[in-house]
Amino acid sequence: MPDHDVAIVGAGPVGLLLACLLAQRGVDVAVYEMRAGADDRSRAIGIHPPGRAALDDAGISAEVRAEALALEGGDVVCDGRILASLSFTAAQRVLILPQHRTDALLRQRLSRLQEGALHFAHRVTRVHDEGAAVSLSFETGREKTASFVIAADGVRSGIRRQLGIDWRERPGTGWYAMVDVPDAHADLRARLHCESAGLVESFPLPEGRRRWVASDPQRMLDDAPTFIDAIRRRTGIRLDLPDGTAPTVFAARQHRASRLTAGRIVLVGDAAHETSPIGGQGMNLGWAAAGRLAAAIERSLGTGVLVLSDYERPTMRAVAGAQRRSFFYMTMGRPARGPVLWGRNVVIGALGTAPLRRRTADMITMRGA
Ligand SMILES: Cc1cc2nc3c(=O)[nH]c(=O)nc-3n(C[C@H](O)[C@H](O)[C@H](O)COP(=O)(O)OP(=O)(O)OC[C@H]3O[C@@H](n4cnc5c(N)ncnc54)[C@H](O)[C@@H]3O)c2cc1C
Fold this sequence. Notes:
By secondary structure, the chain is α+β, with helices and mostly antiparallel strands. It has helices spanning about 15-25, 50-55, 60-65, 100-115, 160, 225-235, 280-305, 310-330, 340-350, 355-365; strands at about 5-10, 30, 45, 70, 75-80, 80-85, 95, 120, 125-130, 135-140, 145-150, 165-180, 190-195, 200-205, 210-215, 250-255, 260, 265, 275. The chain has 2 domains: about 5-70 and about 95-170 and about 255-330, FAD/NAD(P)-binding domain (3-Layer(bba) Sandwich); about 170-250 and about 335-365, Alpha-Beta Plaits (2-Layer Sandwich). The longest helix has 24 residues, at about 310-330. The protein binds flavin-adenine dinucleotide. Flavin-adenine dinucleotide (FAD) binds near residues 14, 33, 43, 154 and 283.
């Protein structure tokens, strides 16, 4: 008998949510995370309707709603003029909660469902499909076995590499800088400045804060004065950054794994697909996929045969759609002038007109993904 029904490698938001969904179904699950403790980096903030549904299924929607703020909508601006303005319906509602808080709520939920399921400081160095089970080797030299192993080990997935699964690049690359700062104005709208000199986005955060993101092709906006100056030159807004605040520069890239399964080993989340943070979709896509995977695993544990067509195909379709959308958002934010800028503003304006507004809001909020 294997040590566990399912072993999940990686306690990011996707591995944790999948563990909750499985534990809720009575599946014996172990999560192995190489970090010694929580990841406090500031990454995902946007929880779209598919993500809300996943959190609901995991039984933590009330906790998330209590901490998150609900985004009312957003405005796209160029040169001081609002090109398009959207307000979200209840069904389109996007919740905003920093990822480290969402992760913490998922960890709490998992420990209530299955105490001791999460193992920090456990770096998996190798997985081996032995036919009837999969063995996992740890840096410490220990070994465990599980009926199925789920690689939720992120964009740089060592398991994906070990299995020799191709990591195919998709269009949509760029560099950005971001910073989360106190915000005196209690504003619940996102603002996207698609300016001739490049993109500036800002989003409200809980606890009176706001996230600012600026395109940074030269990777030079990593100090406060340069960041503030870029925001002022592009938008006319004078940003105040508290002493000691340093923007974080990050790369946006898009990739898809050529396949998501190898025998009893399955890729999920960023290990399976990398989606540009512009548009805020990666975590939500991973959660929606985790829901499909949990259902497939539950069915398989009964029969011993892992049938993943209901996981793999819809996930790849959803990822393709999300990557196309992110590419579009990134294109709309590139520096532009003259007829290109004019044409782009016409397209954005059209997306905000009455006949298209609802569909545009559905697209932005990942409805149906
Ligand atoms: C700036 C930024 C903003 C973003 N904003 C949004 C947003 O608003 N909305 C959204 O949906 N998405 C957003 N994303 C994307 C989102 O952060 C990712 O899609 C999400 O973190 C993926 O979760 P994951 O669990 O698949 O992987 P990860 O969060 O990368 O977790 C993987 C885990 O696996 C562990 N691990 C790796 N290798 C091993 C090993 N060998 N053994 C054990 N453990 C291992 C890692 O330590 C890590 O904890 C954003 C990303 C960035 C960078």
